[in-house]
Design brief:
The structure is a single chain. By secondary structure, the chain is an alpha+beta fold. The chain has one domain. Helix content is 20%, strand content 18%. An eight-stranded antiparallel beta barrel has the order 1-3-2-9-5-8-7-4. A hairpin with a 5-residue loop joins strand 7 and strand 8. It is globular, with a radius of gyration of 22 Å. Its EC number is 1.11.1.-.
Length: 417
Amino acid sequence: MAARMSRRGLLGLGAAGAAAVGAGVVAANTLFDEPPVAHAASTADPFPFYGEHQAGIVTPSQDRLHFVSFDVTTDKRAELAELLQEWTAAAARLTQGEQAGPFGAVGGAPEAAPDDTGEALGLPASGLTLTVGFGGSLFDDRFGLAGKRPPALADLPKFPGEQLIPEISGGDLCVQACAHDPQVAVHAIRNLARIGFGKVSVRWSQLGFGRTSSTSRAQATPRNLMGFKDGTANLKLEDTDLLREQLWAAREDGAAWMAGGSYLVTRKIRMTVETWDRTSLAEQEQIFGRNKGEGAPLHGKKEFDTLDFDAVGPDGKPAIAADAHVRLAHPSFHGNAHLLRRGYNFVDGSDGLGRLDAGLFFIAYQRDPRKQFVPVQLSLAKDDPLNEYIKHVSSGLFACPPGVRDAGDYWGRTLFE
């Protein structure tokens, strides 16, 4: 059998050193308070694949995204479980900078299709993480899984003002690929789709760039395409107690197989950036409730100043308006509901009318969307003045199972037991 070819090995130390532009990051304690795991020291290096939880959730957010939703085309339960095992084996290789299959792109028989598509040869791991989720539609009568559908995977309600496009919403399975190199992320998704041929088909996919949230305090808060810092109050991997309470599913939640997993909500939010760009700075800041430069609350000076919703401005009116985005979304108005966001900007060309097809691909993880995402989004959908400039066109909800513990485990094993 031909030896595996490591992409990182092909680069050599010189290229790996040149890519070491990222600062070191810290790792979260697991749900079971295990010692922190050493994470990637540079943007070229890999993150661990095995663990209690899937990588790509509390992992410090990478710069690029390729998200894909699949429809399962086989009706055989055994084939679905087999696919998840094949995907897991490939993901374990890919995330460590190796090729998707044991023979790689050039190591197999010339008359056979390669084990890897080859476009990532010579590239490092680039912090690639792959995270899988199961949509509600997977729990129909095809695979005998209906009785295992988690209560927290209840269909999202219809929110006021949304204009969802069915063809780019939902799906049986999803895979989130995040990396610091877009070619590495695309390569990973391409190879999983190749492996799944005949068992799954791509329903929709989304490329993203410029992460719009920080998932670690070692990261600066990024900006969305409206120019504002996004996710200042986001859950962080250092918030161990909050993660246990707000992020990770537990056995007592009604689906024992999801213990250690999390629930993923995606929303493609198109922005009418041309209209926004003609809006005065004062109005933009009033809509968000923060200033555009520093990201500070309108009553404060620094980004992380505590929000004071009772503070008044020089005119005697509330410094942060009652319908400001930061107020409507704040945990204190929603039973202390927090979200761990790791969304991305997108620009998908133009709409044919001279306007950019651009916006935010919103990604949020939580323990129970019924108690977290749904009440927050209902409040925003009804009262947020930002709705004049945005439109929700895609939606997804997926149950992301616990992590893969070792080479004998696989994504979703607890579901099929």
